Amino acid sequence: MKPRDFRDIIDLWARPTDMANQLCVQRQVVTDWKTRNRIPTKYWLTIIDAVAKMGHEISAHDLLLIELRSAPHDLDPAHRLQRADREHDL
Asked: Where does residue 71 rank: exposed (0-12), middle (13-18), buried (19+ CB within 10 A)?
């Protein structure tokens, strides 16, 4: 089953701490992603690999579709991706 949003992807891990350890970020970073329903693009390839090792399949195309669906409708696609990356840095 394809994930509907970034929360579904984060929920593939048993705990936010597990995902954080695998991505070498603090647990609070993953918790913030889940709250915002956003994962910065710079982590997408690592997530694709990690999810595959868990026996699930997700592509960059899937992540992009999720990003485009979850971004505000008043932004064009290029600005949506830039916004997602900036949110991570907050």
From this structure: middle
Mean predicted lDDT score pLDDT of the chain: 87
Instruction: Name the residue range of residue 65's domain.
Output: 6-88
The model carries a pTM of: 0.76
> Who's near 27: CB < 8 A, 6+ residues apart?
16, 17, 20
DSSP string for residues in 30-51: HHHHHHHT---GGGHHHHHHHH
For residues 28 and 49, give the distance between their C-alpha atoms in angstroms, rounded to a whole number. 22
Q: How many domains does the chain have?
A: 1
Residue 10 within any structural domain of the chain: yes
